[in-house]
Amino acid sequence: MMATFGLGKIVLYAADPEAVSAFYARAAGLSFDRVEGTRRYESMSTGGTSLVIDLALEPLSRGRRECALSLRVPNLQAVASSLREDGIDVGPILERPSGVFASLKDPDGRDVELWEPRAKPVSVAPPPLVDKPALDAPPLPPAPVPLPPDLPALVDKPAPVEPPVIVDKPAIVEPPALVDKPPVRLEMHSALDLDKEAAAATESATKAEGEGAAAEAKRGTEPPPPPPMMGAPGPVVTAARPAKISTQGGTKISLYGANFADGCRVLVDGDDCTNPKRLDDFTLEIEAPPHAPGSVEIVIENPDGQRSVIQIVYDDGPSIERFSPLEGSPRGDTEVVVEGRNFEEGCRVTFFGNRAPEVVFESPSRIRFVTPPQEQLFHGELRVTNPDGLSALAAELFTYRLATPYAREVSPASGLVGGSKRVAVTGVDFHPQCVARLGGKPATVTFRSAESLELVTPRANEPGLVDLEIENPDGQITKLEGAFTYEAEPTPPLLVEVRPDRGYCAGGQTIRLAGDNFEADTVVRIGEVRAISRTRSRHEIEVELPQRTQPGLVAIELVDRFGIVVRREDAFTYESRPAPRVDGVTPRNGPMVGGTRIVLEGDFFDEHVFVRIGGQAPKRAVVRSATMIEAVTPPSRMSGFVDIEVGRGDAGNTVVKNAFRYDPSPAPAIDSVAPNKGSVEGGTEVSIEGKNFVAESAVLFGGKPAQRVKFVSASTLEVKTPPGKNGEMVDVVVRNPDGKEAITKRAFLYDARYRS
């Protein structure tokens, strides 16, 4: 015998799993968990069957039927009304032998069926008798239970025990409830689940019959059981919501109170209510039958005969008689006038299952509103609901009509015969459910707006021009001839050699790729990073090496203009750059005034290294090669040995201790100052001749620094005098950076007769 497996998961492949899972969370009351690192959403229903929404491997066209779901609901009319109020479009309710059905669509256009199974009669065993009757005598009816004296006369007669009545009625969509309704949770059931339920029901019935026969056989040999519900409190009903309902019936009424026993009956104006639903000891739900206007009693009767009564009111409510216009644009903004009776100020309109933006109340016989946008093409219903909750329904009075689509341009207008290229189509009046064909073959469509679509091209049989067709759901077609060009598959780029095949993590190095089929727009990626490149020919590409934080082997990718990727693993090696190394310094000494030209020899020098001599930057440093640097020593305030440091920010540095010696410098000497007279305003150009001058020498006139000092040579300085007093003869001082100086007494005369 073959084992039977339970149904574990139903998987729906969706173009947008986030939107589809959100739809089923709202429409079916399910809770989804996202699988980490994926776009897969899973939900476990109370029946143990899991609904899974997963990303489709290929784009799905709208309405494509990967599968269809049938969701079982406890009360289809209530569920449909609740979903319409939430803005979900639910189709008409239809009857079939197995129950009542309605349909809707999820965000991918997939069909979803709502199903309320038809109730089945339940066999009720007769209550046990205290005295065993003769075998051929019919069972005696149970004795009536005494009723409390304060119960209304309506319940004087004993309630006959009757099996539940199955009544087939046309499905009537109820109006929105006046109170907040708890969310309706739908359950998924497979055919296997239903078979199990049927088998369980059969087994339960068989077991009940066996137990009844056993009890009958024992009757007379055992003491009779006590009467059922002996001493149990009677039902108490405290509220009915809503308390005012339409005379057309079909409204769901919630009854609140206490002591509602299992198997209790509900009577509306003396008539048994079909299929009352007991939620718990405190809540019952019934569907109101049609009734004439006026006050009506609802009676709740427990199996022991105890009763409780509450009043509700039937009212005519609003009525729809005329509707104009009967057609409008799916973009909305059509003003609609509704005429009828009993409209109340503050009434609301539910149009095509969606709440209308605004209702203008003109009189009890006339209201108007502006149609909202609509993405579907069909006839729709109108419901007018008064503030008291009573409503009127007019089905299929209005039709949305689509405009004729027009395609203007396709961009890009070419692609490979292999297809799978994304292109944009611009135009007007595209519908969200439109379809597209390229060269007669269907293309995957993503609707962006009424003026823009995105297509994924299908595979073509051969290169060449093809036509584009866009068809709206109403059959109107726009055709753009020769809109797209299919091109033959290109030869992918070929990478043969990388020169050099290693470089430093700091990047910036120039490398060359050798191969074939290179194009001007070929993209180069090194270590997953796009590099700056220049195609020199079909056989060579010059690339600037990008930076990388860690050393190691990386791949090189070439991507051509068609998106074809050629990848070569472990094609390039990143290395950590070593710190610069200094092997020798020539010469090793110079004067304190600086200016000595020295040569540093070593390795790993480049234009990014820095040099420090005695902690100071040299006057000039030039990297001649990776092994040689030329520099000019800066002045020093002290004589003696100093360190030389060569480094690079990303590789560290090298320090050579006592690499250079500053020798004491001779004191400067002044031989002449010419001219020796000048303007009291300053600015007189003076030439000072002497020896042992340096570039950093300072010149003072009467203790004031010269305006400008120009070092011409070790024997000549050119300066501009500072301001002075008329007739004053001042000393001239030349002071070197090491503090040594030369003084010529009374060497310059300030004379007001001179002008600078």
TrEMBL record:
Residues 125-144, 197-234 are annotated as: Disordered. The keyword Signal applies. Residues 206-221 have a biased composition (Basic and acidic residues). It holds the Pfam family TIG. Keywords: Signal. SMART domains: IPT. Residues 6-117 form the VOC domain. This is IPT/TIG domain-containing protein.
